[in-house]
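If you are new to this repository, start here. Below is one unmodified record pulled from the training split, so you can see the exact layout before writing a loader.
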Amino acid sequence: MMKKYVLSLLVLAAFVSCKDNPVSKKIKETKDAVSNTTNAVQEMTNMQDDIQELQEMTPLTNEELKSWMPEEVNGMKRISYKAGQAGMMNISSIEATYANEDKSKKFSINIIDGAGQVGAAATMGMRMVMSQDFEEEDENGSRRTVTKNGKKAIEEYRNSNNRSNIQLMQGNRFYLEAKGTNMDIDETWDAIDELDIEDLG
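And here is the target side for that same chain:
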């Protein structure tokens, strides 16, 4: 009788430990959900003081953003830019696109200043998303949260067309979205590093 009991426990343990079984999957999903809820609550607490401070700040002007934006990034020249496109909402922003000589490789960057009443509200949602931990992968590509150089970020990569997308916050104030065409994740990170986003403020 005792042998049967032990055998039953071993079978149950093997079943639960199997990565592909529904019980194990459900346990992992529950643990991830609890972890993400805890992260979200913690981030909300952290944001309260930041938001008050950001609301009292003056957003960067178009001229200040333009003077920061480099002419060249990793050998790619700037081919276009738009400053203040979110100005109708009183959000300070700039976007620019860089390309190599034959335009086969492109890097675009979009930055939103989280200073001011509206800017602080606009960037708050992205901070909440980045407080979560997730990882997804299939035959088409991947999407996950990472911590790089002390910053939480979201990386997305599409295998079919070698496109990458990275979103991150700089100093809890500036929201940054970078897109790379014919650039993998590492190349896109290299281009972001070349921008010296720490100099924004």
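Two things worth knowing about this chain: The two ends are 72 Å apart (CA to CA). The chain has five helices and nine strands.
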